[in-house]
Design a protein that fits this description.
Keywords: DNA-binding, Transcription, Transcription regulation. By secondary structure, this protein is of the alpha+beta class. Helices cover 29% and strands 34% of the residues. A hairpin with a 2-residue loop joins strand 5 and strand 6. The model has no long low-confidence stretch (mean pLDDT 86).
Length: 241
C-alpha cells in the first residue's frame, strides 16, 4: 500500500492511461466517485488529479471533469535548446535520421536576412528527416555560417551536428530565439515526410547564437501536426499587472 493515497491514485490512473486501458478523450470518474473508490478525502483526489494534469496525462475542464490526453504525442520544449539526438535519448523510442542534403550554397536574399549576413555569402544547407517509430514526422532544414562551421559532411549530419560543433569544434552554443507557426504543407514536406492526409504542418524557426552573441545558425523544423505538443513552463509573478 502506498504511504500517500494521492500517489496511489496517480500511479493507478497513469498506468491505465499508459497501457491504453483509458483511451484519449475518455472522461475520468468524478472526484466524488474517486473519493469513494479510494476511501479518502476530496482534497487528496484533487491533489492526485492535479499531478496527473501536470504530467500531461489528463486535461481538467472546469464544470465538465477530467479527460485523458493523447500521450502518443511527444513533448517538444519551446524554451531550451536540445538536439534531436538528446531528445531521442529522452523519448526512449526507436529513431532514425535520413540525410538528404549537405551542401555549401550562396545565401539567397531571404536566407541572408534570416542569418543577418550579405546575400551570396556561403552557408551550409543541411536537409534531414527524423523518423520515429517507423514514420518520418520531422523535417529539419538547417543553415550554418561557413565562416563559423568550416567543414560539414553527411556522416556528421547523420549522427549529431551539435555534438560535432560542441565537442569537435569547441563552439560555445548559448541561446536561441524561436518562432512557431502553422503553415500549409509544401511539396517538399509531402515528398520527405509521412504526412498521410494532413494539409498543415507546425513550423518552428530557430535562430541560434554563440556565447559571443554571433548568430551562426538558422533552422526550419517542420513537424507533423498529430505527433507533437510544444510545452513550456510559466510561473505567475504576483503583484504585477
Amino acid at each position: 500500500m502506498y504511504k500517500n493515497i494521492y500517489l496511489q491514485i496517480f500511479n493507478d490512473y497513469s498506468e491505465r492511461i499508459q497501457t491504453g486501458e483509458l483511451a484519449p478523450g475518455t472522461k475520468l470518474p468524478s472526484e466524488h466517485d474517486i473519493t469513494a473508490e479510494y476511501e479518502t478525502s476530496r482534497e487528496t483526489v484533487r491533489k492526485a488529479l492535479n499531478l496527473l494534469a501536470q504530467n500531461g496525462y489528463i486535461h481538467k475542464v472546469r464544470g465538465k471533469g477530467s479527460f485523458v490526453l493523447d500521450i502518443g504525442r511527444m513533448n517538444f520544449p519551446v524554451t531550451g535548446l536540445i538536439s534531436f539526438k538528446e531528445m531521442s535519448e529522452k523519448l526512449g523510442r526507436s529513431t532514425k535520421t535520413h540525410v538528404y542534403e549537405v551542401k555549401l550554397i550562396p545565401a539567397s536574399s531571404e536566407l541572408a536576412r534570416q542569418l543577418q549576413i550579405a546575400a551570396g555569402e556561403p552557408v551550409w544547407r543541411v536537409v534531414r528527416s527524423r523518423e520515429i517509430k517507423g514514420e518520418r514526422i520531422i523535417l529539419d532544414k538547417d543553415y550554418f555560417l561557413s565562416s563559423v562551421v568550416q567543414t560539414l559532411d553527411r556522416e556528421i549530419a547523420g549522427r549529431s551536428i551539435y555534438e560535432y560543433l560542441e565537442q569537435g569544434l569547441q563552439l560555445k552554443i548559448s541561446y536561441a530565439k524561436k518562432e512557431i507557426s502553422v503553415e500549409e504543407v509544401t511539396e517538399e514536406d509531402s515528398r520527405l515526410l509521412d504526412l498521410h492526409d494532413y494539409q498543415h504542418i507546425v513550423v518552428v524557426r530557430n535562430y541560434v547564437y554563440l556565447e559571443d552573441t554571433t548568430q551562426f545558425q538558422y533552422t526550419e523544423s517542420r513537424h507533423r501536426l498529430d505527433k507533437f505538443q510544444f510545452v513550456d513552463f510559466a510561473r505567475r509573478v504576483h503583484g504585477e499587472d
